[in-house]
């Protein structure tokens, strides 16, 4: 009997050891919880030579804003893969940890809480949306974990005094004011009806447009909020069309914008429909159909295919990844490169050893005149990029057409 017990226990021990070996290190994951740290990571990047360095990429990989998260993650992952060999030569294994915040502020907090428990994670590329960035940044601030957003534009995000918050894109007070100036000066708009989705990004952008219109003498015929996620906006559309505005400005994302512009055209609206970079998605064309023609929108991302260098990058990216370039692919790429540059500077300052999160944060915060592939980056004290710009596009015959920089 004792021999059988010993044999049984030996078998259990052997199986347990094998399973532990299979589950040991952290791995990348597109939607599940953050993985457990490797055994050499416990010092949150302490004074150790070599080891594992993980950069988290967090954004909406599911839900109505998944186009933003997926494209930003894909660009970030491409940049990280290009840097793996450089980190390997320094003795570090560089990995990506991808997480899904669903563009939901509450889910973003849950994801942030998981990410910070893994001490191998030294920085975050994300979040793409303002609401998620705002709530998650509270958790990152507690852990001195730097975040570099490719596309969170809400003005208040960098006004709250958190040192961890950085973005390479323009703010909504820049995007909104420039959109309003463009509408008045280039499109001849004399009056407008403004609608928003009552969320941090959409409402904030709409308020900036309203402020600039009022300053420039453009008459505001209405300023109303709608609930995101609904499938019928005919009530507000009837109210808008009755005022016969030169322009409908929508602060929000493409899912709602597509429905509103389609219903407005069906009810006889002949004016201009305009929004921010939340309208920059091929899915808007699918939702709105022909009604998407001549929809104008601003974006913090320029036309990357405008130069031969940009065209070459697109070709190389698509060949390497098998994916098409999307709305935030380029800024996901540059946000990751800014982040990795900060990590490399921190490694250098730490004598070649793995830096702490705070050391990485300090290095990223001091980023000055970093020339990315598509945007130059210098962070001010708030974490805003001094070189950020705003651009204008429109949809024409099912295609996105670049109109130039918004001035």
- Architecture (CATH level 2) name of the largest domain: 3-Layer(aba) Sandwich
CATH superfamily of the largest domain: Response regulator
Number of helices: 12
**CATH topology tier name of the largest domain:** Rossmann fold
Please outline the major beta sheet.
7 strands, mixed
Number of domains: 2
Shape: elongated
Q: What strand order characterises the main sheet?
A: 7-6-8-9-10-13-14
Query: Using only CA atoms, what is the Rg?
Result: 23 Å
Classification by helices and strands: alpha/beta
Low-confidence stretches: 1-47
- The count of β-strands is 14
- Could you name the CATH class of the largest domain? Alpha Beta
Provide the residue-averaged pLDDT.
89
Beta-strand percent range: 15-25%
Termini Cα gap: 86 Å
Residues in helix, %: 40-55%
Overview of the structural elements:
The protein has 2 domains: 27-170 and 310-377, Rossmann fold, CATH 3.40.50; 173-299, 3-Layer(aba) Sandwich (Rossmann fold). Helix content is 43%, strand content 18%. It has helices at residues 2-22, 66-89, 105-116, 130-143, 172-185, 200-216, 234-243, 254-266, 282-288, 308-321, 329-349, 357-365, and strands spanning 51-59, 92-100, 121-126, 146-149, 165-167, 191-196, 219-225, 247-251, 272-275, 296-299, 370-371, 376-377, 391-396, 399-405. Helix 11 packs across helix 12 (357-365). It is elongated, with a radius of gyration of 23 Å.
